[in-house]
Amino acid sequence: MQDDVKTWLRQRTSHWQDWPPERLLAAKRAAGTQISVVIPARNEERTVGRVVGALRQALLTATPLVDEIVVVDSDSTDGTARSAERAGAVVHRARDIAPALGSYPGKGEALWKSLLVTRGELLVFVDADLTRWGPHFVTGLLGPLLADSQTQLVKGFYERVKTERDGSTSTEGGRVTELVARPLLSLWWPQLAGVVQPLAGEWAIRRDLMESLSIPVGYGVELSTLLDTFSRFGLGALAQVDLGSRAHHHQADHDLALMAAELLVVAEARREHPEPPGQLLHQFVREDGAARPRSRAIPSHERPPASTVKAAR
């Protein structure tokens, strides 16, 4: 590992326990800043209410650190919106936010649309399907932003609780992280090799930066913000926080393959001399005892910087 990466690891990696809520509240008040927690959700009725409720109790009621908890519902077909509202979140349906701009399915679309309905100068993104976690995810991610004005983006990392019977844990990312994202960074952006989990769904960013970035509408949003922040500001603008343990729902391999293809599209677009990528992911499924081809379009659309859209409106 390069010396500059090792230095960055020592200087820019912290633990969530380094950032007690009372200390962050004092820093927030001194800076006069507002904080928004955004939870993108699609068909997460079983978990989103618990996520919202825990955050509201800890960070709005017990310690008034957060100014708003906003759930952006991405075309759920279950009771996700109702569960989130009952738990105390402000809920917006992605397709109802600025409907004249149209709507795309995907996590990145939900995060991009959230920029049009939230007010915080600091944004914290938290997944809706968490089953082992805590409100310290939010305080940990906020710490480096409130402590250092040069920090632009904070990534979380954690032990991922596996589903094997032995209950083993690991700091490995998911399958897409280890098989796609980490090799991509090692090959083309080795300065980012110190980022433990580049695709972590829990991260925090300054609004003015987020609004200035092109945002992929799908799962490429985590990789794109990391690459674009590094390209614009360098390693010194990045930080990461050990958030302890995390468990969440897992996706099928075929869905992960589509996610991987999205990441390749995002990475290729950000290489120095990108080539136009393909548009379809070709897979095979077994039906009636036979392997049958299936092709799916790779989400490749990117929303323009939100600042340009807000100016036009």
Folded structure, characterized:
It is a single chain. This protein has a single domain (3-249), classed as Alpha-Beta Complex (Spore Coat Polysaccharide Biosynthesis Protein SpsA, Chain A). The protein is of the alpha/beta class. It is globular and about 60 Å long. The longest helix has 18 residues, at 45-62. Helix 7 (175-188) runs parallel beside helix 10. It contains eleven helices and 14 strands.
CATH architecture: Alpha-Beta Complex
Shape: globular
Based on secondary structure, the structural category is alpha/beta
CATH fold description: Spore Coat Polysaccharide Biosynthesis Protein SpsA, Chain A
Radius of gyration: 19 Å
- Run of helices and strands: HEHEHEHEHEEHEEHEHEHEHEEEH
Number of strands: 14
Alpha-carbon distance between the termini? 47 Å
Poorly predicted parts? none
Overall pLDDT confidence: 90
Features:
two-stranded antiparallel ribbon, 11 helices, 14 strands, alpha/beta, 313 residues, Spore Coat Polysaccharide Biosynthesis Protein SpsA, Chain A, globular, 39% helix, ten-stranded mixed beta sheet
Describe the secondary-structure layout.
Elements: H1 3-12, E1 13-15, H2 21-31, E2 35-41, H3 45-62, E3 68-73, H4 80-87, E4 90-93, H5 107-114, E5 122-125, E6 130-132, H6 136-147, E7 153-161, E8 169-170, H7 175-188, E9 203-206, H8 207-210, E10 215-216, H9 221-233, E11 238-248, H10 253-269, E12 280-287, E13 290-297, E14 302-303, H11 306-312
